[in-house]
Specification:
The structure holds three protein chains of three kinds. By secondary structure, chain A is mostly helical. Helices cover about 65% and strands about 0% of the residues of chain A. Chain A has a domain of about 210 residues: MetI-like (MetI-like fold). By secondary structure, chain B is mainly alpha-helical. Chain B is globular and about 65 Å long. Classes of the chains: A mainly alpha, B mainly alpha, C mainly alpha.
C-alpha cells in the first residue's frame, strides 16, 4: 500500500527547500525535547541506575523483573480492560455527542458552551472532586442512592470490585476531545452530498450510517488512538483517587513506573517506560491500518 | 477573520522570540545562586517546603526574617518555595544537573546514601562543630556516632531533637483512669467501649493507622528490638511473628473501634474526624497542637473543644520519634558555592543551632532536646502551653523511643502499597497472614537489587 | 406508516435531549458543587452532600484570606501568558509541518511522521532530567519563558495528527490552481491552505492550550518562586496547606478553576464561530 516513490518530478524537487524549512522548527523541537529522553530511556532500561551515578549494564534483567512483578500482571489486565472500555464506550459517547450536536437540537449551543468545562479543570483537581463525590459519608452519589435504599454503604474507590469502575467513571463520559475531532470532520462534509442523498430519498439514519460515519473515519481513528494511549499513560486519575486500589485492583504501568522512581530504580522505571512506549506504538500501527488513516477522504 | 488569526499568531511568535532572547541574554540564571545585590550582600538561595501554610513554615519563615535582619547588608537568605510532595524530586534534579545549592535540608535517606555521600557532594562540618562545642554537647550520643562517616567526616550536624508522636485523646469522649503510658496495650484495648472510636486512615501512607500499628508492635515481644534494629534501614521481611501478632490485634481494634469514615480516609479526613467530636483517639505528633488551640476553632464542629485534649505516650510507655533526619542531621552544606556563600551558610547554621533559636523552634515544633539545659524563658513559655508541656514531660520520663513503621518500609511501599494492602485487610479480602506475605513480597520487589 | 415515523422521530428527539441533559449535568455539577462547598463550614461539609451553606460569611472570609495572602492574579496571568504563547507558537510550527506532510512527497517523509507520532508515547517522568538540564543550561530556570519553551513541545503528536488530517481534507486542486496562477510555495500555504484549515487549527490550538493550562509536573519542576507560579502549582501548594480546612481548600479550588472557566466562556464564542464558519467551503 505504501508505494515507494524513487523518482520525484522536477516540480517536487523544486519544493524541497521549502518543505524542509517548514519541517525545521518541529524537527528542532523533536531533537531537543524528545530524542535524548527516548535514547536515554531505551539505553538505561538495560541498566541498573539510581538516576545519578553511572548506570551499570545488566542486560534484560529489568524486563524479566517486569514479568515477575506481582503487580505487573494486574496492571496489564487493567490496561486491557480499560482500553477496551475506552475504545468502545468512551469513544462512542464522545462520537454520539458530536452527532447529536451536529443535528443542532434545542439547547445545543448551551451544551457546547459547558461541555468543555471538565477539560478546563486540571487532572489533580478533578481527582479530588471525584474523591468527594464518591465518598460514602458525604458524597453526592451515595446520598442520592440512599434516598431509595437507606442502608446503602459503599466506599466506591476503596472496595473491590468497585474501585476499578469508580476510576473508570472519572473519565468514561468525558470525551470532549473526541466530540471536537468528530465535529471537525462532520462540518467538513460538503453539503451537496447530503442534499443529493436526501433527494434520493435516504432517511436520516441512512445518511448517518452511509455518509456521516464513513467520512469521519479518520477522526474516529484519531479518537481511538488518543483514547487508548491515554489509558496507557493514565496516572493522576488513579494515583490521586485509589493509589492503585485495594491491593492491586487499579494498578497500572504508570503507577509502577512512579513507584520505581521513588525507590531510585531508574533503570527499572525506564524499562517500564519502554514497554509503555512499545504498547503505544503497536496501538498506533494497528489503528492506523484499521482505519486507513493515511488515505484522505476526497 | 483570517487576517486577525494570522496577525495574532505572528505577534505571538514575535513576543516569543523576543522573550527568548531577553531571557537568555539577560541575567545568567545559572550563576543565580551567586548573585550579589547592589549593596554587596551575599544572597543564599535555599529551596524549601517550609513555607506558606506548611506546619514547619511558621517558625522557619520568622527565623529567616530574623537572620536577614541580623545580617542585613552582609548576608541575605532567599527561600525558593517548593511543594512538599515535589521536594525530593526537585533536590534530585538539582543534584543531577550539578546545581545543588550551598545549603539543603531534609534530604531523603536514599539520596544521602547513594548520591550525596558517595560523590562527596557535602562539605564537612567537623570544623564548625569544633568551633561550637555547645552543639556537640546537645547532640544525642547515639546519633553523634552514626553521623560520622568512615573517613571521619561529619556531613551534617547530628540529631539532637526527639519528636513526640503519641496518642491524642479527647477527654470529653474518653476519660482515662490512669496515665495511658502506664497501661499495657491489652489493658488499654479492654478499657474501650463500643463508642470509643479511632481516627484511622488508609489513603496515602495511612499515617494515623501506621502509627498505632507501630505502637502495638512495640508492645509485642521482640517488637521494640525489631524497630531499633531497622532504624535508619529498610525492612524487607514482614513475616516475623511479632509483626503478624501486631497486625492481628490492629485488625481487631479496627473492626470494633475504627470510625466509619476511616476506610478511604486521608490525613485531613482523620484530623477532621478528631476535631468533630466523632473520634476519641488519634495517633499523631506535636505538629497537630496548633489545630487544638482556640485560634483554629472555626474548623471544629459538633461542640469539639481543643482544651479537653490531652496527649499521652502510647500504652507501654512507647513514644514514636518522627524527627526529620534525626540520626544523620537536617542541614547539609554542599560543595557548590563560593567562599562568601559558604561564610553565609556557616553563619546561618550558627544561628539555627543557637540556644535561643532552638528553644523558639521547640515552642513551635514540640518535642524536646534532652541534653540541653533549658533557659528560664523557655521553661516559662513552655508552661503556658498545656499540650507542649505534657509532651515535653512525657519525653523526659521513662519512655521507650522507637521509629515508626513507615520510615523502615521502602518508599513506594510506605507511600501507596501499605495503604492499599490495609484496605484489603479491613475489607476482609485478605487474611492477616496474606497481608504480611504480600508486604514481604512487595517490599522485596521494591529493592534496588 | 406515518405513525411509525412519528414515533421514531419522537424517540430520536428524546434520546438526543437525554444525551444533552446528561452531558450538561456531568459537566456542570462538579463546578457548582465546589463553589457551593467553599461557602460551607467544615462541619456543614462533613454532615452531608446536599447541605446548603447557612451563611455567606464563611466563604467570603475564606476567599478574602486567599486573596490577601496569595497573589492569584499573578498566577492566573502567568498561566495565561505561558499557555497562550506556547500554544500559538506551537500551532504555527505544527501547522507548517502538518501541511508539508499532508501534501508533498519527499525523502524521509514516512520516517519523520513516525518519529513525530511516537513522541506522544514517551512517559513524562522519563523526559524530566534532560529537560531540566536543558532549561538550566540555557539559563531559563524559574522563568516563565523557560516553561513556555518546554510547553511548545507538548502536544506535538496530537497536533500533527489533527493538522495533517485537516490539510489533507483540503482538495489538491486548489494548490494546483494556485500554482498555475504563479503563486509561490509560501503564498500557497498562507493565503490558500491556512485559512481553510481554521477548524483544525482551532481544535489543535484549544487542545494544546488546555493541556498547557493544566500542566503541573514541569511547572513545579522548572519554577520555584512565587512570581513564576502557575495555577496548577498554586493549587498544589494549597492542597498541602489547607488540606484539613475543607472550606479553604474548596475556595482555593474555585479560584484556581475560575480563570480557566472565564477564559473559556469568552473565547468559546469566537472559537465556535470560526469552527462553524469554516464548514462552508467554496
Amino acid at each position: 500500500m505504501k508505494s515507494k516513490v524513487f523518482s520525484y518530478t522536477k516540480l517536487e524537487r523544486k519544493n524541497w527547500k521549502w518543505i524542509y524549512l517548514f519541517l525545521l522548527p518541529t524537527i528542532c523541537i523533536f531533537v531537543l525535547f524528545y530524542m535524548q529522553p527516548i535514547i536515554t530511556m531505551i539505553y538505561t532500561s538495560f541498566a541498573k541506575w539510581d538516576g545519578f551515578n553511572a548506570p551499570q549494564f545488566i542486560g534484560f534483567k529489568n524486563y524479566m523483573r517486569i514479568f515477575t512483578n506481582s503487580a505487573a500482571a494486574e496492571s496489564v489486565k487493567n490496561l486491557l480492560w480499560w482500553s477496551l472500555i475506552a475504545m468502545t464506550i468512551h469513544v462512542a459517547f464522545g462520537v454520539l455527542v458530536a452527532f447529536v450536536l451536529y443535528h443542532k437540537p434545542r439547547g445545543w449551543k448551551f451544551t457546547r458552551a459547558v461541555f468543555m468545562i471538565p477539560n478546563v479543570i486540571s487532572g489533580a483537581a478533578w481527582a479530588l472532586i471525584y474523591r468527594f463525590i464518591f465518598n460514602d459519608q458525604i458524597g453526592v452519589l451515595n446520598d442520592i442512592i440512599r434516598r431509595i435504599n437507606p442502608d446503602f454503604h459503599v466506599q466506591w474507590f476503596f472496595e473491590s470490585p468497585y474501585a476499578f469502575w469508580a476510576v473508570s467513571l472519572t473519565w468514561l463520559f468525558y470525551g470532549v476531545i473526541f466530540t471536537l475531532l468528530v465535529l471537525n470532520d462532520l462540518y467538513a462534509i460538503p453539503a451537496e452530498l447530503e442534499e443529493a442523498a436526501k433527494l434520493d430519498g435516504a432517511t436520516g439514519w441512512q445518511i448517518t450510517k452511509r455518509i456521516h460515519l464513513p467520512l469521519c473515519r479518520i477522526a474516529i481513528g484519531t479518537c481511538v488512538i488518543c483514547a487508548v494511549t491515554s489509558r496507557i499513560a493514565m496516572y493522576e486519575a488513579i494515583a490521586l483517587t485509589t493509589g492503585g486500589g485495594p491491593g492491586d485492583d487499579t494498578m497500572s504501568l504508570s503507577l509502577l513506573l512512579v513507584n520505581a522512581i521513588n525507590d531510585y530504580n531508574y533503570g527499572f522505571a525506564n524499562s517500564i517506560g519502554v514497554i509503555m512506549f512499545l504498547l503505544g506504538v503497536i496501538v498506533l500501527f494497528v489503528i492506523n491500518k484499521l482505519f486507513r488513516m493515511n488515505e484522505s477522504y476526497y | 477573520m483570517k487576517k486577525r488569526l494570522l496577525s495574532v499568531i505572528l505577534a505571538g511568535a514575535m513576543v516569543f522570540s523576543l522573550a527568548a532572547c531577553a531571557g537568555s541574554g539577560g541575567a545568567d540564571k545559572k550563576e543565580g545562586k551567586d548573585s550579589k545585590s547592589a549593596e554587596g550582600e551575599t544572597v543564599l538561595k535555599i529551596p524549601t517546603f517550609l513555607c506558606g501554610e506548611n506546619v514547619g513554615g511558621r517558625y522557619f519563615g520568622e527565623f529567616v526574617n530574623r537572620f536577614n535582619e541580623k545580617y542585613a547588608g552582609k548576608y541575605k537568605v532567599e527561600l525558593e518555595e517548593v511543594v512538599e510532595a515535589s521536594y525530593t524530586e526537585k533536590i534530585k534534579q538539582l543534584a543531577q544537573s550539578g546545581d545543588l545549592p550551598v545549603l539543603v535540608h531534609d534530604v531523603q535517606k536514599e539520596f544521602r546514601d547513594s548520591i550525596l555521600i558517595p560523590n562527596k557532594l557535602y562539605y564537612p562540618v567537623n570544623d564548625f562543630m569544633s568551633e561550637h562545642p555547645d552543639i556537640e554537647k546537645w547532640c544525642l550520643p547515639a546519633y553523634l556516632k552514626s553521623a560520622k562517616l568512615e573517613n571521619g567526616d561529619i556531613p551534617a550536624i547530628p540529631g539532637m531533637h526527639t519528636c513526640f508522636v503519641g496518642l491524642f485523646i479527647n477527654e470529653a469522649l474518653y476519660k482515662p483512669k490512669k496515665n495511658i503510658g502506664e497501661m499495657s496495650m491489652d489493658e488499654f484495648i479492654k478499657s474501650l467501649n463500643e463508642n470509643d472510636k479511632f481516627a484511622f486512615q488508609t489513603v496515602n501512607n495511612a499515617w494515623t493507622s501506621g502509627l498505632f500499628l507501630t505502637a502495638i508492635l512495640a508492645n509485642q515481644k521482640g517488637g521494640v528490638e525489631l524497630l531499633h534494629e531497622y532504624e535508619g534501614k529498610k525492612l524487607y521481611n514482614y513475616d516475623q511473628q511479632c509483626f503478624k501478632d501486631a497486625v492481628a490485634i490492629f485488625l481487631d481494634v479496627w473492626k470494633k473501634h475504627a470510625l466509619n469514615n476511616s476506610l478511604g480516609a486521608d490525613y485531613p479526613d482523620a484530623i477532621n474526624a478528631f476535631t468533630s467530636n466523632s473520634a476519641a483517639f488519634i495517633s499523631n505528633g506535636s505538629w497537630m497542637n496548633p489545630q487544638l488551640e482556640v485560634g483554629d476553632a472555626k474548623n471544629w464542629s459538633n461542640g469539639f473543644d481543643g482544651e479537653k485534649v490531652s496527649a499521652y505516650a502510647f500504652p507501654g510507655n512507647i513514644v514514636i520519634d518522627a524527627s526529620a533526619g534525626s540520626e544523620y542531621g537536617r542541614w547539609y552544606m554542599t560543595n557548590s558555592g563560593t567562599e562568601k556563600e559558604r561564610e553565609a551558610a556557616l553563619a546561618f547554621l550558627e544561628m539555627t543551632y543557637s540556644q535561643p533559636e532552638l528553644e523558639q523552634w521547640l515552642l513551635y515544633e514540640g518535642g524536646a532536646i534532652p541534653r540541653m539545659d533549658y533557659s528560664e524563658e523557655y521553661t516559662k513559655e513552655l508552661s503556658k502551653n498545656k499540650l507542649l508541656s505534657e509532651q515535653s514531660n512525657t519525653l523526659c520520663g521513662d519512655v521507650t523511643m522507637v521509629c515508626h513503621l513507615m520510615s523502615i518500609m521502602p518508599d513506594s511501599i510506605a507511600n501507596t502499597t501499605f495503604g492499599n494492602l490495609l484496605t484489603q485487610l479491613v475489607n476482609d479480602d485478605i487474611t492477616v497472614d496474606q497481608f504480611c506475605e504480600q508486604m514481604t513480597l512487595k517490599a522485596n520487589e521494591a529493592k534496588a537489587e | 406508516m406515518k405513525i411509525k415515523n412519528v414515533i421514531k422521530r419522537i424517540l430520536t428527539k428524546t434520546f438526543m435531549y437525554l444525551v444533552l441533559i446528561f452531558t450538561i449535568i456531568i459537566s456542570v455539577f462538579p463546578i457548582i458543587w465546589i463553589v457551593l462547598s467553599s461557602f460551607k463550614t467544615n462541619s456543614e461539609i462533613l454532615s452531608g452532600a446536599f447541605t446548603l451553606p447557612s451563611t455567606l460569611e464563611t466563604g467570603i472570609n475564606a476567599f478574602k484570606y486567599l486573596f490577601e495572602e496569595y497573589n492569584f492574579l499573578l498566577y492566573a496571568s502567568n498561566s495565561l501568558i505561558i499557555s497562550t504563547v506556547s500554544s500559538l507558537v506551537a500551532l504555527l510550527f505544527f501547522a507548517m509541518a502538518g501541511y508539508v506532510l499532508s501534501k508533498y512527497n519527499f525523502p524521509g517523509k514516512n520516517l519523520i511522521f513516525i518519529l513525530f507520532t511516537i513522541t506522544m508515547l514517551v512517559p513524562g517522568h522519563s523526559k524530566a532530567q534532560p529537560i531540566f538540564a536543558l532549561v538550566r543550561n540555557i539559563g531559563m530556570y524559574d522563568n516563565i519563558w523557560g516553561l513556555t519553551i518546554v510547553y511548545v513541545s507538548n502536544g506535538l503528536a496530537m497536533s500533527i495528527f489533527i493538522l495533517k488530517g485537516t490539510f489533507m481534507s483540503i482538495p489538491k486542486e486548489l494548490n494546483e490552481a494556485a500554482m498555475l496562477d504563479g503563486a509561490g510555495f509560501f503564498k500557497t500555504f498562507f493565503s490558500i491552505n491556512f485559512p481553510l484549515a481554521k477548524s483544525g487549527l482551532a481544535t489543535a490550538g484549544i487542545l494544546m492550550f488546555l493541556w498547557n493550562w493544566n500542566e503541573y509536573f514541569y511547572a513545579s519542576l522548572l519554577t520555584v518562586s512565587e512570581k513564576t507560579r502557575t495555577l496548577p502549582v498554586a493549587l498544589q501548594f494549597f492542597n498541602q496547606s489547607f488540606s484539613y480546612d475543607y472550606t479553604k481548600m474548596f475556595a482555593a479550588l474555585t479560584l484556581v478553576v475560575l480563570p480557566g472557566l472565564i477564559l473559556y466562556v469568552f473565547a468559546q464564542e469566537q472559537v465556535q464561530q470560526s469552527v462553524a464558519a469554516s464548514g462552508i467551503k467554496g
